[in-house]
Amino acid sequence: MKIEPMDTTAIRQYDVLIDDGIKPVKSRGYFDSINPSTGETFAQVANANVEDMRSAIRAARAAFDSGRWSKLPITERGKYLVKIARLIRANAKELAELETWDTGKTTKQTTFIDVPTCADTFEYFGKIANELDKRINPVQTTVKSITEHEPIGVVGCIIPWNYPLIMAGWKMAPALVAGNTVVFKPSSTASVSVLRLAQIIEEAHLPSGVVNIVSSKDHDVADELIRSKDVNMVSFTGGTKTGQHIIQLSADTTKKLSLELGGKSPNIVFADCNFDAAIGGTMSAIFMNQGQMCTAGSRLLLEERIYERFLTALVEKTKELKIGNASDYETQFGPLVSIQHRESVLEYIKKGIQEGAKLECGGKIPIGGQFKKGAYLEPTIFSNANNRMTIAQEEIFGPVLSVIKFSDEDEAIQIANDSIYGLASMIWTKDLKKAEEAAKKIQSGVVWINTYGGFYNEASFGGYKQSGYGRELGVEGLLEYTQSKHICTDKTPGGRPLVSAWF
Question: Taking the model in full, what pTM does it have?
Fold first, then answer.
């Protein structure tokens, strides 16, 4: 398919959403957003400063304290979310294009996964009914005991660059329907689709200050959101080191944190698997979004009985992947998000070679004129890896697969759990009893059996160990954005409980 050159003369500027509408930042400054497929600037993004962030926090605080959002019935708040979902779908083509230009993920993915998922999440949480209802506790004494869930207050949301629209839905929708107000900080590497979403949210006419979206390249701006005494909770998705930084910054205000951090997910393939399904699932787990996923199945644990056969088939199929401009519908594997990030991944590939792993395919910048300006890198597979290697222990966040041999289930579980991370894992076998028993032994928040990447609004998602704490989605994810209150009323006949006569 022919790719039309981008019209760089029509570069749009994207401003922030603070309080009552879209507006330029106080400095009126912008930074460039670079299309990783072409190396060209396609948009300019508002570069907020600390005072802009303070304005957003003040607006969110005032909106919450006034009760103009939290005191609305949950069904009324939900109607706004459903309207946002409808507007996202009405602008789906544009949002998908912006997400592709901003992140380098293929048009196929943004069209069929990212944009629909964002819309579906807003709609799902917009239609919840009883999840936040008060609960009568079956206390065996003469009291009426009720637990109620109340909104926390102002929620700060900070996300990375790999799934901007999806994470906007995952964080904003449950926080809002629970009655909170939001200050949202996207990654400076990929802000454009979220700022377009800000325009859509403005069009939905939520009360002023309920949603604020602030972009910036200045780390102090995000730090202000974390430190502020007027922010009651921070929900963060990103690297483990950044998560630890957030823990430190938030200590003085003792605010609630929900942290979805790094991963080094094991993909366990037993000899009795459905061979073709496991091959396809393995490729999706490491090469979707060019491996730039916290749940990427970057450690392939292969049972020795099928090691050579599986590895050969996997390498052959990987070499056939069509690398190209992410906007081309025929492209199967786009660029990484930036040249800088590609350099980081290349350093890991060098370490893999130096530590003795065998480079089976990839590991280089593809040759050809169309690849000169973009952030392209060939999909990479290492065999003869072991779990002590850097490439098997550290999160690379790129299309680099380490293949490790195991002899039996016990060894596979031991290797899988030998990691500081515990976000996700995969198991491929026709023996579902074996799979379910193995799933109980794996130390990760999500275990996929004979599949990969199933995220559902109805089911929670989050990690163990240094992959963080807190949950997204499901009832658990909704309750993250609430605080519980116990209301206890004496029902003793005559109104004289024992405590009233204690002294």
Answer: 0.96
CA distance 256 to 253: 9
Which pLDDT score is estimated for 422?
98
Provide the residue ranges of all domains of the chain, joining segments of one domain with +.
13-261+467-486, 266-449
Asked if residue 304 has pLDDT above 80, the reply is yes
Homologous superfamily in CATH for domain 266-449: Aldehyde Dehydrogenase; Chain A, domain 2 (3.40.309.10)
Q: Give the fold, CATH level 3, of 13-261+467-486.
A: Aldehyde Dehydrogenase; Chain A, domain 1 (3.40.605)
Calculate the CA dihedral of residues 438, 444, 447, 453 and round it to 10 degrees: -150
Cα atoms found within 13 Å of the Cα of residue 349, Cβ hemisphere only: 23
Backbone angles phi, psi at 68, to 5 degrees: -70, -15
Count the neighbouring beta carbons within 10 Å of the beta carbon of residue 475.
Answer: 15
Q: How far is CA 132 from CA 108, 269, 461, in A?
A: 36, 40, 19
* 118 noted as active-site residue: no
Report residue 2's pLDDT band, with 50, 70 and 90 as the boundaries. very low
Residue 498: CB atoms within 10 A of its CB come to 10
- Contact between residue 467 and residue 425 where contact means Cβ atoms under 8 Å apart: no
The helix/strand/coil state of 458 is coil
Q: 257: which strand partners?
A: 234
| Catalytic choice (97, 224, 260, 480) | 260
Phi-psi region of 474 (alpha: psi -120 to 50; beta: other; left: phi over 0): left
Q: What are phi and psi of 229, to 5 degrees?
A: -70, -15
Mark whether 294 is an active-site residue. yes
Return phi, psi of residue 228, to 5°: -55, 130
Look at the block and give the residue holding tokens 């708040």: 77
DSSP 68: T
Catalytic residue chosen out of the listed positions 118, 157, 273, 294: 294
